[in-house]
Design goal:
Blueprint (H helix, E strand, L loop, with lengths): L21 E6 L5 H8 L11 E2 L2 E2 L5 H11 E5 L10 H11 L5 H11 L15 H13 L5 E5 L7 H18 L2 E5 L3 H5 L3 E6 L2 E2 L2
Parallel strand pairs: 1-6, 1-7, 4-5, 5-6
Antiparallel strand pairs: 2-3, 7-8
Helix pairs in contact: 3-4, 3-5, 4-5, 5-6
Length: about 210
């Protein structure tokens, strides 16, 4: 609430994304992009409306149910990398597999680390990796579960232009290889144009 009136962040936003499509959510800072991504992933709760993920209405599920569905279907890449500082690169990539009880977590994580070109850095802690290397570890972690859908929130926001371009190429390459549905929040118009669809927000509403 803002004073006596409700603060509306998103209003009348309706769209569909088909399996295997790539969608860029673009707009100025404060337009509601990250809020929309959080709602699509079931990380935030709306005051109204619904989100269907793989045919299931997210907000008819309780918090544990939404977490289970995310674990089964989704991968995440964030601007701030979100690596656990006490775990090395390989252990960070193994984590989502271990949470699901996968017996081959180490082997699959090693393969995923190799895909992003970081085998030689696999046993380094995040603090000993560059920003670009940390984001590549985050990509390996996101794709290691072979998610049906990947949510990415400003994945190059903390990287310089050259490193960011490398990370984007890698993300799109992994996405194509696995046939993942990609929903990406970005302020980078060049990156947005590389996605099959664009959703442009202004003041919490779709304008394109």
């Amino acid at each position: 609430m803002s004073g006596d009136s409700p603060l509306v962040i998103l209003q009348n936003v309706t769209f569909a994304v088909e399996a295997g499509e790539t969608l860029a959510i673009v707009g100025a800072s404060g337009s509601g992009k990250s809020t929309l991504l959080g709602l699509l992933a079931g990380l935030d709760m709306p005051s109204g409306g619904k989100v269907q993920l793989n045919g299931k209405d997210l907000f008819t599920l309780d918090e544990d149910g939404r977490a289970r569905l995310r674990g089964e279907l989704a991968g995440f890449v964030f601007q701030s990398f979100q690596l656990l500082p006490a775990l090395n690169a390989l252990e960070n990539v193994m984590l989502p597999l271990e949470l699901t009880g996968a017996k081959d977590a180490r082997q699959r994580a090693e393969e995923s680390i190799a895909q992003v070109g970081l085998t030689s850095r696999a046993h380094h802690l995040p603090k000993h990796l560059s920003g670009g290397e940390q984001q590549r570890v985050a990509l390996a972690r996101a794709f290691v579960t072979r998610p049906r859908i990947l949510f990415a929130d400003e994945p190059t926001g903390n990287l310089d232009a050259a490193t960011g371009a490398q990370v984007i190429e890698l993300m799109l390459e992994l996405n194509r290889a696995q046939g993942t549905t990609l929903i990406l929040v970005t302020h980078d118009e060049a990156l947005a144009k590389r996605c099959g669809k664009q959703l442009r927000l202004a003041a919490g509403q779709v304008v394109q």
